[in-house]
Design goal:
The chain is mainly alpha-helical. Helices cover 72% and strands 2% of the residues. The chain contains 26 helices and four strands.
Length: 616
Amino acid sequence: MLVSWCERLIKWGIIFLIVFTPLAFGTVHLRPITLMELIVLFLTLIWLIKLTVQFKIVKTPLNLPIIIFLFLIVSQILPLPFSLIKLLSPNTCVLYKTYGGSLNWSSVSIYTYATKSEIFKFLTYVCVFFLVANNIKEKRQIEHLAITIIIVGFFMAILGIIQGISHKNVWFPQLTQAGHSFGPYVNKNHFAGYMEICIPLSLGFLTAYFTHFRKEHWRKLIEKEPQIAKFILLTFVTITLVGSLFFSLSRGGIVSFLLSMVFLLDLFLIRKENKGIKILIVFLTVSAIFLIWLGIDPIIARLSSLLTPYETIMPRGKVWEDSYQIIKDFPILGTGLGTYQYIFPKYKNKTGIGLYEHAHNDYIEYLSDTGILGTLFLFGAIAYFLIKCLKIWRRRHYPYVLGLCLGGIIGTVSILFHSFVDFNLHVPANILVLFIVLALTHNILHLGHTCLTGRREGETIVRHYSLNPKIKFILPIFFIIVLLLMSQILRIYRAEQYFRKVDFDHLDSSVSLLHKAIKLVPDNAEYHYYLGKAYEKIGLKNASIEYIKLAQTEYQRAINLKPTDAWYHLNLGWVYAKLGINLLAVKEIKLASKLDPKNSYIKKYIIEDFNKYIPL
């Protein structure tokens, strides 16, 4: 009874996440991210309760590699002796010596707060994978999750098509022009990434239904009216999904989808699945007719830019070229998960002016953040998982398994293609649904069939790790760890709420709010920096050297936490200049110039402001 209730709660919790995360603007803002993390950890607590009764875990090819990757990124924030940092990552050592940071105990991550925040997210994805793999094992449960993903995708597709035709974003009515947003997503490329997962799933259901129809007498076909109705409805839904993908005008999304369809055709040819080939050809033909009917001119105009690939890829190519220098300097362990935007300005050479939070290539960004070691574990694990699934898929004959499993595999392949030109694997809604689909794909492959196994059709036959009952004492330990993680996530959220209320028109209240935020999350460099700014303004307003010195202290703390921020060094240099410590002021200003050489605003401050106090 307890097991059944636990599984039911977990299933409905996952369904809520499937609906909520993409509709909450892709879950790219703090509030939906916090809610997502708390719900997943709460569901993990329920699973731990279930494990007290059924002490076993489903064995999948992804279990060990993603746990190793998780330990690897956790190790990036651990304080290590400076001599060990020098051995593991020599250039991290040089960076700390040059720009600031502790020279006794330091971490591999150049900004531990950013890495810690990303660890919470990745832990969420790992927990979701294990929750689905271990609790969604019956055919009915699998269908509920898969159909929910398709329905959510269909709803977003309708929003997208309306936007494509009207040029107005229904989900962002405050925008007069749609711009880069599409449907509920802030970025049209990430909308396309979600569709790349939905379309193959829906196509997998289509393939499964189609195999039930054979050359039969018309009277027998009439008897199958419910199945035919489902087939027609699903065809309409799938074609609508494709239409929205093309109307997003995401070149990377469209090309990735087409490449994934070629891969699907290859798999059908290998298995000599003639029905699969037929349905794919019909599906693509009907989709093309649907697009022509809606109006294909904007799509052709957008895709025509691919005829000049150098001009199309050149802006991102420059980012990748500069990012390569980061990978060269931090090859093994990287700079810390989530730190790309904090290290990249230092390496901007060919890239133009602008803020780059991501590399627009997931592989390059993971290489920069986690090094060769982390990237191999993460993407090698997914590749290994797909290969193992394809090997089992080739041995299966149950149409339902063949179709739906193929949908999961093709969706994953498509998003991996798209990751060469975008950062879908850094969008919480997309990577969350990807891990859900991976777990579903594993369990679909092991669905039983009477003619194959002698068991009932809806039963899942998966291998488990039979855990020793003697180690059940670890469950309360994990329970406490999960509660502590939830507490830390709430502290981050509360601190951010204080920070958002900061208003430099009311300096005293701002100082109080920033102290509250720092008390909750002391390792957030931005809080210390803004506290320094507040002290600086108070010092200038009241002509108080004491407050200027307090500003100096907070700027230095911010630099110790995040040594690669040019603005922190620039403001510290300005404070030194006000205090008359010119040598240190010149040093900090030069460091700021080195950390962001392409920043025109910093150059302007140096030329117009600092020359008033010290000759440069």
